[in-house]
Write a structure and sequence with these properties.
By secondary structure, the protein is an all-alpha fold. It has helices at about 1-40, 50-60, 65-85, 90-105, 110-130.
């Protein structure tokens, strides 16, 4: 009788440890996702918002308000130069993107094409949201 009770207690303990592991894993995964996406929620190559850059550098370097203003101007001017540099090649980027999408569609079934197009539409919306930060 004592061994049955011991076996039950051991089984309950194993189940509790398993459930705690699931819970801890789920929470850990959620925290990790929030941590990573909090920093990398932007599209690859997207620039962090100007205010974020100024805030981080102000905190790290203890910038004065005058330095913060100057930094903002430098960031704006630098980004304007990057945008001017990128502007002539943007149509080529878009052409290559669309060509790749067409090639992918060609290997998909009609149902997959619908899902792919919906996925790409979401991706394009995310990219458009990130563009004002560029």
């Amino acid at each position: 009788m004592e061994t049955n009770k011991t076996k039950r207690e051991a089984a309950v303990l194993v189940i509790i440890v398993f459930l705690l592991g699931l819970l801890l894993g789920g929470v850990g995964n959620h925290v990790w996702d929030e941590h990573v996406q909090g920093r990398e929620n932007q599209m690859p190559g997207a620039r962090p918002p100007r205010n974020q850059v100024v805030s981080e550098l102000t905190r790290e370097l203890e910038l004065t308000s005058d330095q913060q203003s100057q930094l903002g101007v430098i960031i704006d001017q630098t980004r304007a130069k990057w945008d001017a540099l990128d502007a002539p090649i943007q149509p080529e980027h878009e052409r290559i993107r669309q060509e790749g999408r067409q090639r992918i569609r060609a290997i998909l079934t009609p149902d997959q094409v619908k899902k792919y197009d919906a996925f790409m539409q979401r991706l394009d919306e995310q990219r458009k949201k990130a563009e004002p930060q560029r």
